[in-house]
Amino acid sequence: IDQALAHEHDGDALWIACTHGDVIKAVLADALGVHLDAFQRIVADPASMSVIRYTPHRPFVLHVNHTGTDLSSALRPKPEEPSKAEDAATTHDATVGGSTD
């Protein structure tokens, strides 16, 4: 779904899937590379939000069981012209040492 929506919207799309907690935990487990037998270790409360950014190389789990109001850190910054080295580092890997948000 993500690839089809990204293609339709010029490479970037934000979409929401609402479902039962166990389905959300199974999707999160897959994104984290956790075996499905262990997905019950993940908490997904009613009305909470979890955010996964899918890239061509691997998914990044940005939020799990988020119950606050600010998800701005999950939005991609407006595209600029980064250098090739910066582009490779920011596209395929998470920030070393964690987020700067």
From TrEMBL:
Protein's recorded name: Phosphoglycerate mutase
Disordered, as annotated region: 69-101
Leader peptide range in chain numbering: none
Listed Pfam families: His_Phos_1
Basic and acidic residues composition-biased segments: 77-90
Matches recorded under InterPro entries: His_Pase_superF_clade-1, His_PPase_superfam
Coiled-coil ranges per UniProt: none
